[in-house]
Please model this.
Amino acid sequence: MAPPYYADLGKKANDVFSKGYHFGVFKLDLKTKSESGVEFSSGITSNQESGKVFGSLSSKYAVKDYGLTFTEKWNTDNTLATDITIQDKIAAGLKVTLEGTFAPQTGSKTGKLKTSFSNETVAINTNLDLDMAGPAVDVAAVLKYQGWLAGANTQFDTQKGKFSKNNFAFGYQTNDFALHTNVDNGKNFGGSIYQKVSDKIDCGVSMRWTAGSADTLFGVGAKFALDADASLHAKVNNKSLIGLGYQQKLRPGVTLTLSAAIDGQNFNAGGHKVGVAFELEP
Model:
């Protein structure tokens, strides 16, 4: 099994804390696929606090014979994006993506060239920001040896002529256990533990701390599968913020998620958040 990319280190624990929760929003996601193989994804999110409604639409078409994938995206902020990806054709395990965005109202344009390569022992990805004033080069790599993982992520800003990011991570991962620690720019420290206790229970522990601060964020979370179509989610941190979620597959392709965020330190003061999400896919 190939090692994860740097951004995916600790993903199993992060999923325990993030999946199954949609606090303070009403959300609808729809995925369809045409007979010609074009995949369409659309989504609407209504923020209860701000009242803002955000929508997005994307289409994806793959030319499998040439390893090409074309993706078009649009959202209600009037931002257009196009991604062109070629995978496993230049070299086995190599993926190259050219990404561009354009905002018609402001005329703002961005471009990125992304590459990623992985095999059984290493996972490398680069991100080149195509800014003519001075591109930023982001490089990350993860090495794997008998389940142990070591990763580094650095970014060089050519416009300022200095490194703007220096991150390191270490970990250990098996099919049912994952340990992850990281240091970002020498001052932000983090760690997580994931354990698949049984076929029905997944647990996670997460910790964050910043040098020079006495404030440490510590949380525990769990997912319990009631059956093949329903699951319960719960998490709590040392600030007494409690998250609860319930996910139910109503029928094949239709999933309902109910979630609530409760401030345990100010329970009577209100300000708690609820969320509802529908996911529709073929």
User: Anything to note?
Assistant: The chain has a mean pLDDT of 93. The longest strand covers residues 162-173. Residues 6-280 form one domain. The chain has one domain: 6-280.
